[in-house]
Amino acid sequence: MVTNFSSPIKGANAGSCQRLAGYLEKENLQLPPSQQEAFFCAQSDKASQTEVVTGIDRNGAGQGLKTGQDRFYTFTIDPSQKELAYIGSDADKLREYTRSVMANYAANFGKGIESQDLVWFAKIERGRSYTHEDTAVQEGAARKGQAKPGDQTHIHVIVSRFKGREQEGERTVSLSPLTNHRKAGGAIGNGFDRVHFIQANERTFDQAFSYGREQTETFAHAKAARS
Length: 227
What we know:
Layout: E1 2-4, H1 18-23, H2 49-60, E2 72-78, H3 81-87, H4 91-107, E3 120-125, H5 135-138, E4 154-160, H6 194-209, H7 219-226
Antiparallel strand pairs: 1-2, 2-4, 3-4
């Protein structure tokens, strides 16, 4: 289980999330209505693209940001093919799990914030294509744009930089998952520890679905292998 803080639309976080939300509709454009995946959030399994853009953009407006500062963040939740097979790539289970991930996200700031304080939307995608950054493309084993094999189901999350407002025009707490505020001695204070977040999400998956994770499947094992 990997959580990846990157965006498929580079450099767009300082403005409206409209481009990103539109990009995340790409799979739906190729599917009949009965097979399309809607955006979802903490309160609902179905949210429109308009609701996503309005919710994220409105919460970031008037919060005192300077030009070029991020108004929202995006990350992907990337289950392994083994994890997906275990839960049958079930959309209801993936939505349930994503809501738990967002509870971990809120708690990881160490500010007493809960998931219901956030403004976020997510979208399940079923496929992935090779890009020029993939080793297989660089080595000539695959073509850019070619579909990757196997179950490639993953979840995109768009989350406002700010805690949700209780009233229009209110300024709220800024929450950046890309900054670690460290106390003297190196311990993380009330910033965002991305390693801790990934490991918390692993534990949540295992507990929610009674998944027996082998040591070789853990983020800690993968991290140690790279070092």
